[in-house]
Design brief:
Number of strands of chain A: 17
Radius of gyration of chain B: 22 Å
Distance between the termini of chain B: 5 Å
Helix content of chain B: 25-40%
CATH architecture of one domain in chain B: Alpha-Beta Complex
Oligomer: heterodimer
Structural class of chain A: alpha+beta
Shape of chain B: globular
Largest sheet of chain B: 11 strands, mixed
Structural class of chain B: alpha/beta
Strand order of the largest sheet of chain B: 1-3-2-4-6-5-10-11-9-7-8
Strand content of chain A: 15-25%
Shape of chain A: globular
Helix content of chain A: 25-40%
Number of domains of chain A: 2
Number of helices of chain A: 12
Radius of gyration of chain A: 28 Å
Strand content of chain B: 5-15%
Chain lengths: 500, 517
């Protein structure tokens, strides 16, 4: 994604009020392109350095769960997708799902991580209704992948044309179980528990606090989403809970140690992520400038009010009493060198085998688009950002003689803005790539003007099944080719002018 | 032998099953069974009979009545772990070992009694009451008992079975079944086997699937096998061992069931006598018996040498830390939400959890959960859990070194004394008793090694005493071969129980304990 970022200033932008302070001016809080300390603005106070880290849980796209054979499916009716193990029936044991391991390895490789050939599983204990066993199986001691990095791009100065690439370090990726879902029914004072999700495989991706504002966080997450979707390791749709992001936010003065951080949860979209992070940064700055302190607490983002609030059920720090998971031996992965000669590759996970089969990552795809079609880098971002748009573009290019550099304008300006206006996805477009290609061909052959083309396009949106040529003929939009006729028209216009 | 009888048609599976069921009824005072699955068992027996008639046997175990400790999941049959927490819990699946037995035609008579959640060494702390050792009612014991005044209830003199698989041991010992499954985490199969005069085998960790065994300590639990002779144990082992994809801690290697050779020449054998097993509190009787056994091997030409397992004395403490930590973790799932007991308290989820767990668990279980959670706290983890793991490694290494020095099998006592009377046993609490009683059996669980109790002789009080053989990892064949030879030498007597005699006088025609191989 191309996020707009500008060398802005941190300001106290709102009034203090009761309850959740709703900012008077919803200022997009930003940091400068180099992500360092930002000079104080007119308020003349010492500068603040915001620090943002992210903990991201991505649901693994697999047929069955991480440790049991029950199915993974979104929005099924409550509780049929629960195996004996998921319900924590006594005597059941976890058995690792190979596909989940492969997904984690793929993701680790795509994020430039070292894959740990031996990783371990642990139990993290806490009591909650949606955690049937009373513990979650995770990887606390030795996770499957460590020390990677993710590059993402932002644009500066509000200009699409100036983009800067930033990197965030990936601390680790660990495999763990998802919990079930609790629905609190306050009217009947009861909690309803749906265990369909309990045991689904998650990859927890921990991003180091290398980011400094909401835009950066959003851009990093968006890029991660694209990577996961490209790999197929997670569908990563935030709205469906397949990608959950928690932000760790703190502020400090340059040269001083890091401040106390808060954890912000309940963020349901990339947009809200940016808002939540920015709000929290501002809140902390305001709090500190007023002589207050920041509590090391967990806060929830309230999307309606646009602010963070302390989460109610936190009673002191939890001791999770981590313990090795005794029912799972260490997870051993192989590469070409360490693979024993007589082992069937079906029986093991071979890192090198997976590496060889990795698809082109978004950054590679974008570079290829730029090179192949001569489009601008920021165009390639937009193409990849919209599901199906790249394919649409490439199809049009195939079918038309118009240069890709010109086609891209029609795709990004006309097609995309129409789709956005009507909240349609590319797949739902009433204008197919063939139709658009036909239209562009007419334009390219100079049979119609570009103004006419836009008119035809407007007609095509109606989806009445007419071809561009039919519409042109109907509306008599053809460019007049006859020299004589043109001269007559021009003469008529001139004559008309003379008469005034 | 009974298997042969079945084949020859001298007895039918249904008759066999009925006899066992009626013997269970007449020995009800032993309290060995929690659930008797009479209808299901008779049905299974009928099916078996059809197979015998058609000559299409499922294996050696076809038609053989067996019992299973009540911490193994049995589909459709209540599985309680002798706890209020699971009273009325009927599992929807069979433990792998249960399924294997059923697949081979065995007849499941019922679920046997135990200490609650297998925590204990007496089979006295379950919610259905204590199990009585059948030998309490044997002619041999009664002979040796000091005659009491008539006013004293002879019932109060009964002795414990040991634990925690006391029900299974009693069931086998009293002839109500031909084999039983127990579990062994710190000695829970070998201890009651010794006290009840039966063979108790603890297989190597990872050989037999734990899927469906409600866990105590996942890293030490194994399903245990209780039978009346070593050959039978080998047969059952053959049906149960092998990789289970549902249990990731079972080894992948193919297991080949074996027939036990009848050793005649032990001169190539090297028996190790670990000196640390001369533990404080070891009765002079057992010490003497141990010595006698060593001599037996020596005189037969085997090489008998003293070895040292220096970290033995730390194993109990180490076990307490690791066991309670795992217990705290394993018991976390019992919250009353999905299954099992749920308290009526419904003010909040938390209060429901707390009440459910207080009502569902006995003191022993709760005590271990509290200790375990303490050891797992962040500030304690390094000093307790990690340290205990390291000590565990040292204990395991002791055995490795001993076996590397050329020893094939270790010979030790199984228990410190013969079975104590119940009234005496309950004078000390569960933890104290476990600490005392597990000392000779626990280390084998730490190291994951196979071990077997072989009934050796009767004590002065007329009660069984057994000796233990510990073998190398996955060398069950060697272990059982030695055990079989020893069994043949000692000729342990058959229990003289009125009830058994009444039901099956034929049993006493054999010198050896009745067996099905």
């Amino acid at each position: 994604v191309v996020a707009r970022s500008c060398a802005g200033v941190w300001r106290r932008a709102w009034q203090r009020g009761g309850g959740c302070p709703a900012p008077r001016r919803q200022q997009a809080v930003a940091c400068n392109a180099r992500g360092g300390a930002v000079p104080a603005g007119k308020s003349g106070l010492a500068p603040w350095v915001p620090v943002v880290g992210l903990e991201i849980h991505a649901q693994i796209s697999s047929n069955s769960k991480l440790f049991s054979g029950s199915q993974v499916q979104f929005a099924a009716p409550p509780n049929p997708l629960v195996s004996f193990f998921d319900a924590s029936l006594p005597g059941t044991l976890p058995v690792i799902n190979r596909r989940c391991v492969e997904a984690a390895v793929m993701t680790g490789l795509a994020l430039n991580c070292s894959i740990n050939k031996k990783s371990l599983f642990d139990r993290k204990h806490y009591f909650y209704a949606d955690l049937p066993a009373g513990y979650q199986i995770t990887q606390q001691r030795v996770p499957i992948a460590v020390n990677g990095s993710l590059s993402y791009s932002l644009c500066i100065d509000n200009k699409m044309s100036q983009m800067v690439t930033k990197t965030v370090r990936i601390k680790q990726i660990q495999l763990e179980q998802d919990s079930g879902k609790s629905l609190h029914d306050d009217t009947r004072s009861q909690t309803l528990v749906d265990l369909n999700r309990a045991g689904v495989g998650l990859m927890e991706v921990v991003m180091e606090p290398d980011m400094c504002c909401g835009e950066e966080a959003a851009a990093a997450v968006r890029e991660l989403q694209l990577i996961l979707q490209t790999l197929g390791s997670s569908q990563a749709v935030m709205a469906e809970g397949q990608l959950r992001v928690d932000a760790n936010v703190s502020v400090h003065h340059p040269g001083e140690p890091y401040g106390v951080r808060t954890e912000v949860k309940n963020i349901n979209s990339v947009r809200f992520l940016a808002k939540a992070v920015d709000y929290e940064i501002q809140r902390q700055i305001e709090e500190l400038e007023n002589g207050g302190t920041i509590l090391n607490e967990t806060r929830a983002f309230d999307s309606k009010l646009g602010c963070t609030v302390p989460m109610r059920d936190k009673e002191g720090k939890q001791d999770y009493r981590f313990m090795p998971e005794p029912n799972l031996p260490p997870l051993i992965l192989y590469d070409a060198k360490s693979l024993p000669a007589n082992m069937n590759h079906q029986q093991v996970v071979n890192i090198d085998w997976i590496r060889e089969r990795l698809p082109d990552l978004p950054s590679v795809k974008r570079a290829k688009l730029v090179e192949q079609y001569g489009i601008l880098p920021e165009h390639s971002f937009t193409l990849l950002n919209e599901d199906g748009l790249t394919e649409f573009f490439e199809n049009v290019v195939k079918e038309t003689q118009m240069k890709p550099k010109k086609v891209i304008g029609w795709i990004l300006n006309d097609l995309l803005s129409y789709l956005k206006q009507h909240s349609l996805t590319v797949k739902e477009s009433p204008v197919s790539s063939f139709l658009l290609a036909d239209l562009l061909n007419l334009l390219e052959k100079k049979e119609i003007s570009s103004t006419a083309a836009k008119q035809v396009l407007a007609e095509l949106w109606k989806g009445e099944g007419k071809s561009p040529l039919e519409i042109v003929k109907e509306k008599e939009l053809e460019l007049i080719q006859d020299q004589k006729e043109l001269e007559q028209i021009c003469q008529a216009v001139i004559d008309g002018q003379k008469n005034e | 032998q009974v298997s042969a009888a079945l084949k020859e048609g001298r007895v039918t599976p249904t008759e066999l099953c009925q006899r066992c069921l009626s013997l269970i009824k007449s020995t009800k005072f032993l309290n060995a069974y929690i659930t008797v699955a009479e209808e299901a068992a008779l049905k299974q027996a009928e099916e078996s009979e059809k197979r015998y008639r058609g000559g299409q046997l499922l294996g050696v175990l076809d038609g053989i009545p067996i019992a299973v400790k009540d911490n193994f999941n049995t589909a459709g049959i209540e599985t309680t772990c002798a706890s209020n927490m699971l009273k009325g819990y009927v599992p929807p699946y069979n433990a792998t070992v249960v399924q294997k037995l059923l697949d081979r035609g065995a007849v499941l008579l019922g679920k046997t009694n135990l200490d609650e959640f297998a925590m204990g060494s007496g089979s006295t702390d379950g919610v259905f009451g204590p199990v009585r050792n059948p030998w309490s009612y044997s002619g041999q014991y009664k002979e040796k008992s000091v005659p009491k005044s008539h006013s004293e209830d002879k019932e109060s003199n009964w002795v414990i079975t040991g634990g925690s698989s006391g029900g299974s041991a009693a069931a086998v010992s009293s002839f109500t079944c031909f084999a039983a499954l127990g579990s062994d985490t710190g000695g829970s199969t070998r201890n009651p086997a010794a006290h009840c005069g039966v063979v108790g085998l603890k297989p190597t960790y990872g050989l037999i699937s734990r899927h469906g065994l409600i866990p105590l300590v996942n890293s030490m639990d194994v399903p245990g096998i209780l039978t009346r002779c070593v050959d039978d144990a080998a047969v059952v082992l053959g049906s149960l061992a092998g990789h289970d994809p549902k249990d990731s801690t079972t080894i992948q290697d193919n297991f080949k069931p074996f027939e036990l050779p009848s050793l005649t020449d032990v001169s190539k054998l090297s028996i190790g006598i670990p000196k640390e097993y001369h533990a404080p509190g070891l009765s002079s009787e057992i010490l003497a018996l141990w010595s006698k056994a060593a001599d037996l091997f020596k005189n037969a030409g085997a090489r008998v040498i003293e070895v040292s397992l220096p970290h033995t004395r730390y194993s109990i403490v180490c076990y307490h830390v690791l066991c309670t930590a795992e217990v705290a973790s394993n018991m976390a799932r019992f919250d009353g939400l999905e299954y099992g007991h749920r308290s009526d308290m419904n003010k909040s989820t938390e209060s429901m959890y707390a009440a459910t767990r207080r009502e569902g668990f006995n003191d022993v279980v709760r005590g271990r959960i509290l200790s375990g959670n303490y050891f797992l706290l962040k500030q304690n983890y390094e000093n307790y859990f990690i340290k205990a793991q390291k000590v565990r490694r040292l204990i395991a290494n002791d055995f490795v070194k001993a076996f590397e020095s050329g020893v094939d099998v270790l010979l030790t006592p199984t228990t410190l004394s013969d079975a104590v009377p119940y009234m005496e046993f309950i004078k000390e609490d569960n933890r104290t008793r476990s600490t005392q009683d597990d000392i000779l059996t626990q280390a084998a669980n730490m190291a994951g090694l196979p071990a077997i109790n072989v009934p050796t002789a009767l004590s002065e009080r007329g009660l069984p005493v057994g000796l233990q053989f510990i073998g190398r990892s996955f060398q069950e064949k060697q272990l059982l071969t030695v055990a079989k030879w020893f069994e043949k030498q000692v000729k342990f007597p058959v229990i003289q129980l009125e009830e058994v005699k009444r039901h099956d006088p034929a049993v006493f025609q054999h010198q050896k304990s009745a067996s099905f191989s």
